[in-house]
Specification:
The protein has 570 residues and is of the alpha+beta class. It is built from ten helices and 19 strands. The longest helix has 55 residues.
Amino acid sequence: MRVTQNRFYNTFITDQSKIKEQLDTVNRQISSGMKIKYGYEDVSVFADTLRLDYEENALDQSINISKDAENFINNTDSVMFQMTDTLTRFKTLLIQSANGTNSENNYFALANELKSLKEHMINLGNSSINGRFLFSGSALDVKPLDEHGNYYGNNDTIKAVISEDVEIPYNIPGEELFFGEDANMNRKVTTNIPLTRLNSDEAVTLNTTISELRGTNEDYTFTIQGRKSDGSTFNNSVVLTSDKTVQDILNTVADQFGRDLVDVSLSNGYIQVTDKFQGSSLLDLHLYAESNSDTIEFVKSANVGADVYHKVPFSAKGSIFSGNIPLTVMKDTTNGTNLVRGDFAQTNTLLTDLTTTSSIDGKSLTLELNGNTNTINLDDTMTVQNLLDTINTTINSQDARAFLDDRGHIIFENLNGSDVITEVALYSNSTPPDFLFNTNGTLTIDDPKHDLFSALDEAIEAVENGMIYPDGTNLVNPRNPGIENAIERINHVFDHVAKEHTKVGAISQSLNYSIERNEMLKSNVQILRSDILDTDIAEATMKLNQLSLNFQAMLASVAKIQNLSLVKYM
């Protein structure tokens, strides 16, 4: 084949371009540290790089989220340490108040310090970090507690997305902390009128007879009313002769509930009933006894007769009138809502789900408003909101209302400084009652559902008044359980806060493990990305040297060939 000068030139240009392109590529790989600059250079490398970049960015985001959540929960941990210290101090002062040797001035000083501790607890509950309140649930911009301890947050958890389809909740909602429920606890109640020997302050024993108690030989009819842990109500009468003992009275009370369902005991002259069924907050008791000439009181509220159980006027506090019995779900389903047995009612809860009876058709409630009696007829389709609407229609005022609070109580309130409502009562007309709103029943010592600030308030009130034990004859505080019983309730509050605190540690550990795991995965992704995309400098340098030698050899060869011509051989 004849090689012309033109063909030689074209071949030289082509080879030179290829080698220079290869040299440029290798040089760029060495200088940039990457095998490719554009996707078209190597599609497989480009695709792997995009995938690994996405994974690295996702891991970065998870690490940042986890670190933010860890900071949040660590601040929660610090605050809850202070809460447990505050409650420890509160409990210590309460025990000091119960020793029976304090003067009036001592009680005053102790009560003031207890009040300051409650204020400190509220301030701790309102702690925030970076403009986010720690205990408001998901409502991070809402201050959770007011000066009285009323809660305005929600019960939602905030979750950190630590990886695909994996979330860790990292907050302790105030609803759960301040108003939580401990399903392993038993409800415990007490009477507030002690049994004492005749003409003496000495407490009776289990062997004390009714005759020794009252100084008569008459028979007594004991009326026992209340509600069992399953929500069913009862109203029974039992006759006991005067030779029966206090133990017989306790056995009679136990029989009404079922002896295998409750423990009935005597403590300092007070009858106490403990529900054996854990997690129920429904148990209640009213008890009194009558003979031809005498009445024995066990439970008493201010300005209410011993024989009154559930037809009790709501207690007034400022513009608010409230009962002491919350509406509670007693059936497994409730109008398509997510409530279960034991939950507090909501406005869309059916009234039939708040009673153990199968139907309320034809039954009624009585609303006593400022001395006027109104009948509210019920049916199985009525909800709590329907009941409230009926009540508000009866009130018929822009300056007063009835509503359901978040603890299941129906509340009556005067608005705009009015006194539209001066006295109000709401009760069932059935016997025994289908619904309880406010009762002259036993006082709560402890309950699975706890209210932290209500427990603190009761304890402070007991210390202010120097009430070691409950005193139903006290017209100002007849339903305060007293310091001794308040200690038991505060112990429960302390245990609940401590239990919630343990969750903080578990959450913190989970987030820490998540950060370590994601940082390790990020390192592995970076190594893999480097293996795929990064230039092997040693290999590239060798290739560069080889291409340089090839290029120089090509130039030398071309130079020699260019000097060859036919003229030189002629």
